[in-house]
Amino acid sequence: MQLVPVGVGTKKRRGVERLPTSHRLIEELHLMPFQKMQTKLPTRQWAIVGHPGSGKSTFAAQMQSPMVVIDADHRFAEVMRHVAGDVFSLSDNASDNVDAERIAALLRQNMVGSGVRTVVIDSLTAIIAPLVTAAVMDNDAGRNKNRAAAFKPKALAMRLLQDAITGYGVDTLWVYHLRNGMDAKAQAIESTSISTVELARLRRSLNMQLRVVEQSGKRGVVVDWARCGRSGLTLWDDTGCWKGMPERIEQAAYGGLTVEDMERIADSTPTSFVSAQAAVAWGFEQGAFNDAVHAQNAYDKLKGEKLPKTSSEMWKLWISEVRDRLQREPV
Known about the structure:
The protein is α/β, with parallel strands linked by helices. The chain has 11 helices and 11 strands. Helix content is 37%, strand content 18%. The strands form 2 sheets. Strands 3, 4, 5, 6, 7, 8, 9, 10 and 11 form a 9-stranded mixed sheet that branches.
């Protein structure tokens, strides 16, 4: 039978038999135009944070290969021996790995048909931090009439990176750092190398946030947040190189959950947060604020006005604030 792209039915035209009903013919020839979606684990859209030297890059080496590494820290070669398959560099030009526009262009040029299963950004800090430093220096030098506008390149770079990296549907791992410091009262604090605002923006591209911890000479990973899985879990590494850890995390977070369970978790309102950053990110994601900066300012204002004595008090206040805003006119 000759296939001709005309109508349906079984009439003949000029000696050529027309096709039977299109969907029936497709079934007969097993040429389904779409593939049936199968229930499976969520794509690994993960971020991991930890102190320098805590093993974040080694963890990244345990992600699925082939992988392409945006080696912004220029140190991934040190852990390549832990990767089970092929590792591709984004570019031989080191500067390409810290330039959001070049990263997007190179991914657009090379990702399709590459077979890459994971994109590793190691680290996001090295891409974003120089933009923040430049903005602060320009503001301090009085070169900007609008001080807030100085940070626009950082916001645009973050958005460009997210859209470019997550658009291919492969696993992703965003790496950033924890650092120790002192607050205005000379109290020791721990902060992240990516601001609260940028982490809130990043969260739309994530379904899990991980944190490296160390205790009694052992290293582990805490699942601080999972969009549709279990959170608050700690898994300890007994291999020295995180071997099999991504699979263990998936089993711990998703094992035994039905699709309905995952949807329920994703739609539920939290009762607590691991940090103020997580609280702001959640509030922003609910659609209660114009942007992440608006969410951050609202959180700071609420804390300053109510002066909660404990974190749990602040979480209750913040959840109530977000709910109240959602009941008003949409932003």
